[in-house]
Amino acid sequence: MKKALCTLLLSATLFNLAWAKPLTPYNQGYDQGRRAGQREGKERGADLGRLDGEQDGYNAGFAQAQADFLTVARAEAHQQGELEGRRQGALDGSRDGEKTGVEEGRRAGEAGGRQSADKTAYREVFSQAQAAGLARARKADPEADGLREGKADGLKRAREVARKKDFAQGRADYFQERTSQPAQAVLQQRQSQLSLNLKSLLSLDVKSNAVFGRHTRPPCDFRYCQFPSDNEEFQKGFRKGYQSGYETGFDQKYDWYYRIEFQRAARWGANQAVQPDLSADREEAYQSAYRQAYQTAYQESLAQTREVAYSKAFELSFAEAYAQNYPQFRKSHYKEVENQAFESLYRERYLKVFEPTSEKTYLETLPGEKKRQYLEGVRAEKADFENRPVRLLDAWMTPTDVGNLSLLSVRLRNYSEEPIPGYRVHLFLGEETSRLYHSIPARSEVVVTGVFKFTERKPPNSELSATFRRDEQDLPIGKLPIQP
Asked: Could you say which of 2.60.40.770, 3.40.50.720, 2.40.70.10, 3.40.228.10 is the CATH number of the domain covering 388-484?
């Protein structure tokens, strides 16, 4: 037995020697350095693991407790908002459903009642009204009516045609006569500056966020680096093994103690947390749940209440509308059917006299009406020149070399025999307004030039208009586009 045991041990020893690394100076240094590095790594890993685990655990526990406070507060506010939203939504939906149902039912009932009364009244009066219309047509004199009304219609058409063409021609001819007369004098005047306003600007807001993370492994300081040999290969292997052993030992102890201290400190941090002011978060959760629950309950209650209210209001309004409208529909349909029956016998005989009489009267009276309307047009245009003696003739913008300034020139003419004070003439360009400083002499033309200040890089397209003040009224005297 002992012999067999000794044989087994000898075989195992020979097997290990066969597979073991050769005992070179580098390998010997590596093994000793690895053990020394593990010593430093375990010491420092345990210390830093405790420190980092305690700090991170406390912060994580504190933050989780704060988050739990927020979660609970939002859940409670959400529940309260949902309950209140359902209650208020049902009340408001019932109220609005009642109101909407009554309004829609009343409108639909009134329309239905009117339509039913209309159809019933027409059906009931048709035969009686038709007989009455035919009887009236047999007693009438369509020839005499056609002669009388044909003359009136022909005269009316002649006046309308002359008014449309010859009246306008009379005004145009008088206008051409007045404006073609040369001005007695052409003057140059200066005017003050115009300006525009600037626009406001907008601003932006910026937000930032923060994150947490695990500490990195610090480098080893080789505190246990003692070389028992001066061999260069041994020292090289020792340093390499020291570094490897340090990392293994550090990570092993660091992770172990980090987890232990993290869990303990997390409970400590959670106990130290104080509930902050969560009124804003509560209000946000409350309002969000309130709005959603309110809309759901509101729509359900609205639909149910509206349907009942609509039915009741429709029936009542239908009956009221039928009773109110039936008499007037009966009367109007009687008149309509009676007139149609009357025209069926009367119209043909009436038109045989009306149409030729109207055309004859039109041709006979048209020349005289044309002359009369032409003279009326001349008198109207003459009165307009007396009422508005000043007219805007032209306007233009001239750029300058000075920044954003341009020269605005306006040409006006006074057609009257009296000078026109400048304060009675107003100029409008965009949002700016100005009046003349100098009077316009009688039968004269003036060119008013003023400085125009604009805010853009080039003058804007706009429209210039002018008015003349008479008897507390501003009468328009011209409007022209202004291009830069």
From this structure: 2.60.40.770
